């Protein structure tokens, strides 16, 4: 699928969520942040809203679970029809089992890492996964400044993913904009989440295309 741009929905109101999706027709998928006031100090939306979004759009739904106990809750998001379900490794008690449960329900199995979590301890797990999400801000809030100290981790993750030979998406999330996306693409990311850069733009769909062009021009990796 090559370079993928996933706008991150900002709204908490269902009508506004639908408007945001309609405003980014060129997007490769829609990134949905699920937060529970426990894993992160913020609360967004949960399974019932994702089930409603599934009925409202054919777009690929890329779910990012910033929640405690993902082993318990994540499989339901796959059953709801999300194409991709990402849990935080810091919150999972059995990441391999959870990844297998997600795949068994037809979703891509994603594993996210907070900025302080290294990738190396998980090198042997990568073959169980379809997506690795490297957070480029502390999870919890949109609109934060991109942490460029994450670039070495991104490069290292790309090396490890290439060594598997498998089609595992390498996603970045947090502070991604026309100013920062090139550095992430050069470091090996192929999937880009952007919230404020897209929905804060005068023309969100044009910004999706700008981000894709910029990433494509600097891509170290695109299948
Ligand atoms: O939720 C987030 C952090 O938890 C992300 O930063 C959000 O998905 C994207 O927002 P922005 O592009 O404004 O950083």
From TrEMBL:
One GO biological process term: pentose-phosphate shunt
One Gene Ontology CC term in the entry: cytoplasm
SUPFAM superfamilies per UniProt: Ribulose-phoshate binding barrel
Cofactor notes: Binds 1 divalent metal cation per subunit.
Highest taxon above the source species: Bacteria
Keyword match Secreted: no
Keyword match Metal-binding: yes
Matching InterPro entries: Aldolase_TIM, Ribul_P_3_epim, Ribul_P_3_epim-like, RibuloseP-bd_barrel
Annotated EC: 5.1.3.1
The protein's annotated pathway: Carbohydrate degradation
Keyword line: Carbohydrate metabolism, Cobalt, Isomerase, Manganese, Metal-binding, Zinc
Catalytic activity: D-ribulose 5-phosphate = D-xylulose 5-phosphate
Active site: 33, 173
Cofactor(s), names only, from the UniProt record: a divalent metal cation; Mn(2+); Zn(2+); Fe(2+)
Enzyme type, top EC level: isomerase
Chain positions recorded as a divalent metal cation binding sites: 31, 33, 64, 173
Molecular-function annotations in GO: D-ribulose-phosphate 3-epimerase activity; metal ion binding
Binding site for substrate: 8, 64, 140-143, 173-175, 195-196
Protein family according to the UniProt entry: Belongs to the ribulose-phosphate 3-epimerase family.
Function: Catalyzes the reversible epimerization of D-ribulose 5-phosphate to D-xylulose 5-phosphate.
Protein name: Ribulose-phosphate 3-epimerase
Native organism taxonomy: Bacteria, Bacillati, Actinomycetota, Actinomycetes, Propionibacteriales
